């Protein structure tokens, strides 16, 4: 199924940070009815992108919790998204994330994965 975005690249920096770049498909089903005449990407779709990026980075444990999530900017059809996910060195299975839309912060927060 087309999720409405296309992952272009996922790479890991020397710092351990994961970086993904994606484009939001203007014809994505996520924009249907959200909102007519002024489409925006729903928050649940944004969190799904974060979770998918974590999975593509090689983390196989499921996300169990999102916290400190802040939606800072609307994401619109056609926006270029850059996602960064950084492991928390002091708390295994925990990560901080940020997504920029066209170079400006759109969503920030933290997540935890299931413990082994």
Give structural notes.
This protein starts with a strand and ends with a strand. It has 116 residues and is mainly beta. The model has no long low-confidence stretch (mean pLDDT 90). It has a single domain (5-113), classed as Roll (Thiol Ester Dehydrase, Chain A), CATH 3.10.129. It has a six-stranded antiparallel β-sheet, covered by helices on one side. Strand 4 and strand 5 form a beta hairpin. Helix content is 12%, strand content 43%. It contains one helix and six strands, in the order E-E-H-E-E-E-E.
Q: Quickly count the helices.
A: 1
Helix-residue proportion: 10-25%
What is the overall shape? globular
Number of domains: 1
* Strand line-up across the major sheet: 1-2-4-5-6-3
Question: How would you describe the oligomerization state of the chains in this entry?
Answer: single chain
CATH superfamily: Hotdog Thioesterase
Rg over CA atoms: 14 Å
CATH class: Alpha Beta
Distance between the termini: 30 Å
């Amino acid at each position: 199924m087309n999720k409405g975005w296309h992952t272009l690249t996922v790479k890991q920096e020397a710092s351990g940070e994961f970086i993904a770049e994606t484009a939001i498909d203007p014809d994505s089903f996520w924009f249907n009815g959200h909102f007519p005449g002024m489409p925006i990407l729903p928050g649940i779709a944004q969190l799904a992108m974060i979770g998918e990026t974590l999975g593509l980075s090689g983390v196989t444990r499921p996300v169990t919790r999102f916290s400190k999530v802040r939606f800072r900017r609307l994401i619109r059809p056609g926006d270029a998204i850059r996602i960064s996910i950084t492991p928390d060195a002091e708390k295994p299975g925990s990560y901080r994330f940020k997504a920029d839309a066209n170079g400006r912060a759109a969503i920030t927060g933290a997540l935890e994965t299931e413990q082994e």
